Amino acid sequence: MLNRTSRTAPPDRSVVLAWRGIGLSIALAAGPVSALPEDADQPVSIQADKGTADLNPNGVTEVSGSVVVEQGTLHIAAQELTLTNRDGKLARAVANGGPDDPARLRQQVRADEPFVDARAQTIDYRLADDRIELRGEAFLSKADGEFEGGVIVYHLKDNRVECSAGCRAILPPTTDPD
Question: What is d(CA 27, CA 45) in angstroms, rounded to the nearest whole number?
Fold first, then answer.
């Protein structure tokens, strides 16, 4: 069942709520959830078994059960997801996996690079900070390496990775530009 709380919807945002079979689907034309500029112009699509959507400018949307989120090249799959808005824009997305099924994220961060793939028990995407934090059996694969550890923090703007709690990195050889 969907519970919806909204006094007034933000003027720059259209919202469509619809049932698909027994699941919930929410499509939001909202602020950017992704690194590619083209992705920010795409609607956010959320599918889940159940959820609550607060459509106020500082609202929180919580969904659970077979959650899938898509916007442009961004794809998140999880058992639970919490989206937090600040001033009408998506500020944070926290995805949690199940006991044997980690949350997963796939996104093309830069147009000239392959997709970034990540999985962990918890994926905390802080959009305002351009940072993705992976906690619990974390894994990150990107063009310039693969990383595993208890906690991985990926800073999208400066392409920096921090790893802690038992880290392993596989880095491809660098080529010397001639």
Answer: 4
Q: Give backbone dihedrals phi and psi of 144, rounded to 5 degrees, phi first.
A: -105, 25
User: Is the CB of residue 75 less than 8 Å from the CB of residue 107?
Assistant: yes
Q: What is the pLDDT of residues 84-101, one digit of tens each?
A: 988 877 789 999 999 899
| Phi and psi at residue 57, to the nearest 5° | -55, -30
For residue 166, the cross-strand partners are: none
Can you tell me the distance from the alpha carbon of 123 to that of 20, in angstroms, rounded to the nearest whole number? 26
What does the alpha-carbon distance between residue 58 and residue 35 come to, in Å, rounded to a whole number? 22
Radius of gyration in angstroms for the set of CA atoms belonging to the chain, rounded to a whole number: 17
Distance separating alpha carbons of residues 27 and 69, to the nearest angstrom: 9
- Domains within the chain, CATH numbers bracketed: 13-170 (2.60.450.10)
